[in-house]
Amino acid sequence: MKRDVLDRLETFTTLDKSLLEAKKELLLYTIEHLLRLGIEPTFPFIAVGACRMFPQAYALSSDFNDIPDARIVDLMLSSLKDEITVSPQQTYRLTPTGKNIVLDVSARLRNKAMHKTEPETKKIGTNTISTNYSALQLAKPYSEYLVEKKANMSLIWEHFGIEPDTQTKELKKYFTEVNAYANMIGDKTMNLFTKEVLAKLNENL
Prior knowledge:
By secondary structure, the protein is mainly alpha-helical. It has helices at residues 2-7, 17-20, 23-36, 43-53, 55-58, 70-79, 96-113, 129-138, 140-148, 153-160, 168-185, 188-203, and strands at 84-86, 92-94. The protein has a two-stranded antiparallel ribbon with strand order 1-2. The longest helix is centred in the middle third of the chain and has 18 residues, at 96-113. The protein is elongated and about 55 Å long.
């Protein structure tokens, strides 16, 4: 499942010179982005994630742009003394300094993305709220919630076949309607599930 999430990461194929030279900053962005997707950023996931998103900076070469250059990733991580911390389990977290840098990188990437053609919007759900409710009952995100008692946003993106943190407005409409329907028929579990998903969607605004 995590592999599927990595495969759907947005690729920035034409970085300008200033971003291309900011290898450390791009790696910090990768770590924070993986965390937002529910993936613990250990070295293998960071290496693959950085290569997927920034092949110009972190692929082995232009001929092997789907293979991470692990040597460069290791070198960059070793140099980030003030920006990251490492747990005993070898997972990485950003310090306040690192998070401030990521805010700047995010703004620069968003500014670049404004000049890209908007992708086609995928239709989410059907026109019938009761049908959406029934379909969600049988879907993997809800099945896992019944076991783990926690909404997994990675499964939400996967279920709807969309990129992480996209079509938030459509998703909020979908889950708001299902939440209201679940409340109307007295389905407390679905009500709690959809409330948690909505709260997480609002966090990403």
